[in-house]
Design brief:
alpha/beta; six-stranded mixed sheet; Rossmann fold
């Protein structure tokens, strides 16, 4: 089943792209690469930077990944940027990704977190602080190799974006490099 979305390409700035590239470069990337989610401009820019062939999921992520090839298909790198907060069952996503990882594979995952729930976007079912997310990773059987947190600023106009750009309401992007 093809994943249907009401969202357009996420808006990202050069700083967000640069932060992601630097984080991946610090830990390394090699193919084959699986991107969790459909093709968006952000991953297209990453593909240009790293010159790797990317495979994309094109099915509903709320169900087991029975639609990815056969069990012999394993990935050296899995990218999952700004997806997990949109899922009803994030543990399912993590355990399904783990099944597709080679023994020496790495998974890169990021998600935004806000200090106050009022700033969550309507498509977010979950937002995590560091300790809650790391507990979720532990339950999924994934180990943290590296972690980084970066502050994102909104370029939109209006009251909510104005408030989000104050230190108490900053959006923070959590970056993880994970292994089995």
């Amino acid at each position: 089943m093809r994943m249907k979305t009401v969202y357009s390409d996420p808006v990202f700035g050069e700083k967000r792209l640069t932060d992601t590239i630097n984080f991946i470069e610090n830990n390394g990337m090699s193919g084959p690469v699986l991107v969790i989610g459909h093709r968006v401009k952000f991953e297209t820019e990453l593909q240009k930077e790293f010159k790797e062939q990317f495979d994309y999921t094109d099915f509903d992520l709320h169900y087991p990944f029975s639609t990815i090839g056969d069990s012999k298909e394993f990935y050296k790198t899995i990218l999952c940027f700004e997806v997990i907060e949109h899922l009803l069952n994030p543990l399912l996503l993590l355990t399904e990704c783990k099944k597709l990882m080679r023994p020496d594979a790495q998974m890169y995952i990021s998600y935004p977190t806000h200090n106050f729930k009022v700033f969550w976007t309507s498509g977010h079912f979950h937002e995590y602080d560091k300790s809650r997310f790391e507990y979720l990773l532990k339950v999924a059987g994934l180990n943290v190799v590296d972690y980084s947190e970066k502050v994102g600023r909104s370029k939109k106009i209006g009251i909510r974006p104005l408030l989000k750009n104050t230190p108490i309401c900053w959006v923070k992007y959590q970056f993880y490099c994970l292994a089995k």
